[in-house]
């Protein structure tokens, strides 16, 4: 990976020129963002990889619904098999399979019972979602770079691990590093959330901290709620799994953070199968999971919620296996101030 990053380094100035030129055009009004007939909250990031956007979208969706806002969620539908606009859910019923919608929006709908759609082009996607659902507030999943759509509030997430990493290549722009835009783009952000996930809070290095000055900065972390049976949805207490040997499977951006938290819960994670991020499971891979489950003499299979929504359709093939996902919730530290700030921006 390090060698590949070095080989791609000559392309970084080209990428940077394109990004800075595009942002300049938006900042100067050469490119114009379009308003839609609803308030828009964008939840995005500055990096590739898992920063916790989906848990943040779920948190904000639940918040806005609880306050009485007619809420809809719009996502690109990353790695879905379909194209164009799809009205995914009316808040009561899901109209498409997870392979057609993408795992992130599917998980959000299951968690929040929210109106939702996917579309690569966010402006027409938002307009169609408003028309189809009547939503008065749109939460834009992964929207920071999608500047064609005007937003009333821009929330940007960072993985704390990324900010505190000493790897100089990670902190470069694509295609060598993980940055989609330079740190200076944070001028557009209204709120910054640093997600420490299951780790302790760490002091941020100056190279990152200087860009947060004057910004509304919040920390978040994950709380493990319990385990849920993938096949029937039954909930189990974490203590029911303490000391248990499980086969761990996941296809997320940072699989080892998931394994780390399972270890802290005293679960034996020696046996594991790691798949690519946003992996769309097929029959061959399910058979591989079954084979490894029996070969490792595991008591259960444990996965993430994002993986569970794609594995659920293989219930028949895995009817002889106990498979669960770890249910987590995002906790915003200083939540009262965070929620008050969101309402202030939306009511303007």
Please describe what this structure looks like.
This protein has 348 residues and is α/β, with parallel strands linked by helices. The chain has helices at residues 2-7, 12-27, 53-66, 98-101, 103-112, 122-133, 160-164, 206-209, 255-264, 283-295, 305-311, 335-347, and strands spanning 39-45, 71-75, 86-90, 115-118, 137-141, 153-159, 191-195, 216-229, 235-236, 245-250, 268-274, 300-304, 323-332. Strands 1, 2, 3, 4, 5, 6, 7, 8, 9, 10, 11, 12 and 13 form a 13-stranded mixed sheet that branches.
Supply database-style keywords.
single chain; 348 residues; alpha/beta; Rossmann fold; 2 domains; 13-stranded mixed beta sheet; 13 strands; globular
Provide a short characterization of the protein structure.
The chain is α/β, with parallel strands linked by helices and about 350 residues long.
Count of DSSP helices?
12
Strands, count? 13
Say which CATH homologous superfamily of the largest domain is assigned: P-loop containing nucleotide triphosphate hydrolases
How helical, in percent, are the residues? Answer: 25-40%
Q: SS-based structural class?
A: alpha/beta
The geometry reads as globular
H and E string? HHEHEEHHEHEEHEHEEEHEHEHEH
CATH architecture assignment of the largest domain: 3-Layer(aba) Sandwich
Radius of gyration: 20 Å
Which helices and strands, and how do they pair?
Blueprint: H1 2-7, H2 12-27, E1 39-45, H3 53-66, E2 71-75, E3 86-90, H4 98-101, H5 103-112, E4 115-118, H6 122-133, E5 137-141, E6 153-159, H7 160-164, E7 191-195, H8 206-209, E8 216-229, E9 235-236, E10 245-250, H9 255-264, E11 268-274, H10 283-295, E12 300-304, H11 305-311, E13 323-332, H12 335-347
Parallel strand pairs: 1-5, 1-6, 2-4, 2-5, 6-7, 7-8, 10-11, 10-12, 12-13
Antiparallel strand pairs: 3-4, 8-9, 8-13
Helix pairs in contact: 3-5, 5-11
